[in-house]
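Table S2 (text version). Query chain:
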Amino acid sequence: MIILGIDPGFAITGYGVVKYEGNKFSVVDYGAITTESSMEFPKRLLYLHDSLKELISRHKPDAISIEELFFNKNIKTALTVGHGRGVAVLAAAESGIDVYEYTPLQVKQSVVGYGRAEKAQVQQMIKVILNLPKIPKPDDVADALAIAICHGHSHRMAGLTKY
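Corresponding structure-token output:
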């Protein structure tokens, strides 16, 4: 199973593509899609959309997993992340591939075994699980890989949240 994990954002959207076979994970691709603050708002959204569509087309994942938006005290930040998340969901939906969403708590529980794990613990586990030489940067990339791993651990369980 090929899984595309997406940590949605507006300025930075992390992505991670993993292969899950025989209860083992291997990394296929990972990185970040960034938009410049100097770009007009609609063009930033279009760039994010086109970049995600290209990733989906290139890797042909069996499933796409996206982090749920969590409440943020900074409303402006929450809204911009929401725009990026909406674009990611749209790009995934257009592909016809099943889209799943996971809360940060579910991702931490799945990767570390503890839902209140610190970011550094999650990052270290990503490095170990995927046998990477170093922790992926920026943080959004490690988060996207964690979201993909979470789906791999969860895909056979009943009650998955799917769009």
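Notes on Table S2: Residues 2-154 form a domain with the Nucleotidyltransferase; domain 5 fold (CATH 3.30.420.10). The two ends are 19 Å apart (CA to CA).
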